[in-house]
Amino acid sequence: MPPPIENWAERVCSGDVLAISRAITAIENHQPEAEELLRVVFPKTGKAYLTGITGAPGTGKSTLVDRLAAFYRRQEEAVGVIAVDPTSPYTGGAILGDRIRMQGHAGDAGMFIRSMATRGFLGGLARATAEVALLLDAAGKDQVLIETVGVGQDEVDIVRLADCVVVVMVPGMGDDIQNMKAGLMEIGDIFVLNKSDREGADRVEQEIRGLQSLSPHPSGPSSQTVLKGHDFSRAESNAQSPGALAPEGSIDWTPPVIRTIATTGEGLPALAAAINEMEAWLRSEKRLEARRTQHWKRRLDAMLRTELMRRARSNGFDASVLQFHAARIASGHQDPWQLVAQLTTQLFQGEKPA
Amino acid sequence: MPPPIENWAERVCSGDVLAISRAITAIENHQPEAEELLRVVFPKTGKAYLTGITGAPGTGKSTLVDRLAAFYRRQEEAVGVIAVDPTSPYTGGAILGDRIRMQGHAGDAGMFIRSMATRGFLGGLARATAEVALLLDAAGKDQVLIETVGVGQDEVDIVRLADCVVVVMVPGMGDDIQNMKAGLMEIGDIFVLNKSDREGADRVEQEIRGLQSLSPHPSGPSSQTVLKGHDFSRAESNAQSPGALAPEGSIDWTPPVIRTIATTGEGLPALAAAINEMEAWLRSEKRLEARRTQHWKRRLDAMLRTELMRRARSNGFDASVLQFHAARIASGHQDPWQLVAQLTTQLFQGEKPA
Questions:
Q1: What is the mean pLDDT of the segment spanning A249-263?
Q2: CB-based contact, B93 to chain A, within 8 Å
Q3: Which residues fall within 8 angstroms of residue B139, CB to CB, at 6 or more apart?
Q4: Alpha carbon distance B174, B315 (integer Å)
Q5: Segment holding A240, helix H or strand E
Q6: How confident is the model over B142-156, as pLDDT tens digits?
Q7: Predicted pLDDT at B345
Q8: Are B165 and B192 in contact (CB under 8 A)?
Q9: Span B92-106, average pLDDT
Q10: Is any Cβ of chain A less than 8 angstroms from the Cβ of B235?
Q11: Which of A162, A192, B27, B267 is 20 to 30 A from A288 via CA?
Q12: By CB neighbour count within 10 A (0-12 exposed, 13-18 middle, 19+ buried), where does A88 fall?
């Protein structure tokens, strides 16, 4: 039985680990109490700084996140870590050594680590992650780190809810992996070249710079002008991106490339400094507010979508009705577009049938 | 100016390449004519067999698809290829040699190849791919091959619309890549071990077999019994999967592992035979109908979601309204959950406010 909401919320806001863990489980399981709880703690949110850390598998994101968390703890900042990465040691893809290293934080009340199940969510993972981030924010964490493996739209959606996006790369990745980078170039505020003692670091940095010149950061004034041809979709997404809201004539943010060796901690202070600098940039001229507004715009859209479907289902459009119509479509007896138009009209009462 | 719908539809159904290309562009751009056209050609669909081919980058999927298409052409089957793979040669990530090889099909009226833009779709890619597959079906293609890079939920969504899912792996992939395989194990009807002349082929095949024993094919009778603990979500997805509809006591489909060397064509006849065998299995005891019904159930759900949002937007919940509310939420002046409940109630007229 869940604890009474007000009491539960109070415990979450005081940083009670058990209360937070229970709340995350409620969020993951879509329990109605989760929403009630979030509504109660919502006024306490907005203080934490959210950093998303993403990159291809094998780039050492988890170790980097671990080191960065430890760095913030030494500065006596409360840290929350959300790992949404099927290859992360937190989520079970790890060798024993990783697990042991992570246990170094056990017993530290200023550190909360939680892995999110990446299975069975069917698209709701970005929402659940956003809600957990709000929860950790309300729980008084100063820094919330969200780790995701950057290989799909889902992961991009997750990391885009962060205030600052760190994209991790390593030297010597194959061409196929490099191809994946393009999508990440657009969302990266800071690039990390991890395992930078490996051969090929200079070349990867040059490649990043080269891609940057083709795909400028949304804050750049020239983002529209250099886009052409098939880059239309990118121009469109830039137009909706937070940076596009930056006042004209403001100083642009040029995503820096930071070299690190996460396993030894080399470059970690430089990374923390870059994150800090980005935060200062965002906090000036209300850029952070503009960015968070854009994030809420996307989230509102997703929430509305979900709620409309929930009501549609409770208004008779449930699984068995879907099954009935699906069978008729599969056998060629029903036009799916006509059906959807009819059903939607029925749901929106007061509107005339199409 | 688009051609009149009826005339356009007629040309699509006769296999006119220009008419098909125009229709795909209309689908990609969400033009209203696309839906009109699809409604007209819909009665001509249901004849093509859809094979989805997926795998991590670098597994040689494109070459395999190319060879398979050529194989079908030699059997005088009309073939349509849809490449939804950012690393595919069709979509521009290729070396010149790949492009030249693909041009080997130029001038063959029985072969239609189209790459889908993987950018700027924001979740609608699965829908667009499904619609293009319907179109190629109506255009008289016997075999429709859908190539996707299997690394995210989006790609899984795309490939799941196929009648048969082929998962491609190669020997010697790193552990990180292997971790990604788990999600693909569940949806694979046929496994291909490509580049099988490389060292480690036996080990990968053993790994596939091992994973299969942990995660049985949905058609297997024991799928529920071996699942436990955190595998709940998998059990749930199995319950909704097409195989779960197979009549009790029917012969199960055990996903075969086919070894190929796509570059030389070795193993291609065996792969085509396996796809053929799977089709025969699906066509017996109405399994194909059951599977397609499940696919339409998912698609109806997605279509309804999109249509509800479209109507919500046209009923006043547009981008500027979203922007207004998002700014209030970002500054802590509005509870997003309450807002969504209110707005949804307004949209569903006739319902009392919550």
A1: 86
A2: yes
A3: B12, B13, B14, B15, B20, B80, B112
A4: 51
A5: none
A6: 999 999 876 566 677
A7: 85
A8: no
A9: 47
A10: no
A11: A192
A12: buried
Who contacts B172 (Cβ-Cβ below 8 Å, separation ≥6)?
B198, B199, B200, B204
Q: What is the C-alpha to C-alpha distance for residues B215 and B234, in angstroms, rounded to an integer?
A: 9
Q: Tell me the backbone φ, ψ of residue B28, rounded to 5 degrees.
A: -60, -35
**What backbone torsions phi and psi does residue A316 show, to the nearest 5 degrees?**
105, -5
CB atoms within 10 A of CB A63: 22
CA angle B177, B181, B186 (to 5 degrees): 170
Q: Is B40 on the interface with A (CB under 8 A)?
A: no
The tokens for B118 are 């993987």
pTM of the shown model = 0.68
Burial class (CB in 10 A: 0-12, 13-18, 19+), B118: buried
Encoded tokens for B256 = 């075969």
Sheet holding A79-84, edge to edge: A111-115, A79-84, A143-149, A49-55, A164-169, A190-193, A257-259
List CB contacts (< 8 A) between B122 and chain A: 153
- Strand ranges for A252-340 from DSSP E: 257-259
| pLDDT tens track for B194-227 | 999 988 888 888 877 876 676 555 554 333 322 2
Mean pLDDT calculated for residue range A313-317: 78
Contacts of A38 in chain B (CB under 8 A): 337
What per-residue confidence (pLDDT) applies to A349?
Answer: 63
Question: Which of B93, B121, B234 is nearest residue A119 as measured by Cβ atoms?
Answer: B234
Q: Which amino acid is at B347?
A: L
Interface test with B, best of A304, A325, A328 (most B CBs within 10 A): A304
Question: What percent of chain A has pLDDT above 90?
Answer: 43
Interface pTM, i.e. ipTM: 0.78
Q: Nearest CA of chain B to the CA of A86: how many Å?
A: 7
CA distance A138 to B156: 35
Asked if the Cβ–Cβ distance from B349 to A349 is below 8 Å, we say: yes
Report how many Cβ contacts below 8 Å link chain A to chain B: 221
**Helical segments of chain B, H only:** 5-13, 17-28, 32-41, 61-74, 96-102, 125-138, 153-159, 175-185, 201-214, 232-239, 268-283, 287-314, 319-330, 336-347
Structure tokens at A219: 């804050």
C-alpha closest to that of B90 among B118, B48, B127: B118
B110, two tokens: 């029985």
**Residues B307, A340: C-beta atoms closer than 8 Å:** yes
In terms of CA atoms, which chain A residue is nearest residue B236?
A120
| Greatest mean pLDDT among A199-208, B223-232, B249-258, B321-330 | B321-330
* Residues of B with Cβ-Cβ distance to A330 under 8 angstroms: 46, 289, 292-293, 295-296
pLDDT tens for A66-84 read 999 999 999 999 999 998 8
Instruction: Choose, out of B98, B153, B245, B314, the residue to mutate when testing the contact with A (most A CBs < 10 Å).
Output: B153
A297 DSSP 8-state letter: H
Contacts of A335 in chain B (CB under 8 A): 39, 42
Q: Please give the radius of gyration of chain A, using alpha carbons only, rounded to the nearest integer.
A: 22
DSSP B243: G
Cβ-based neighbours of B11, under 8 Å, separated by 6 or more:
B3, B18, B19
Q: Tokens standing for B308?
A: 């509800």
Q: Which two tokens stand for residue A297?
A: 């715009």
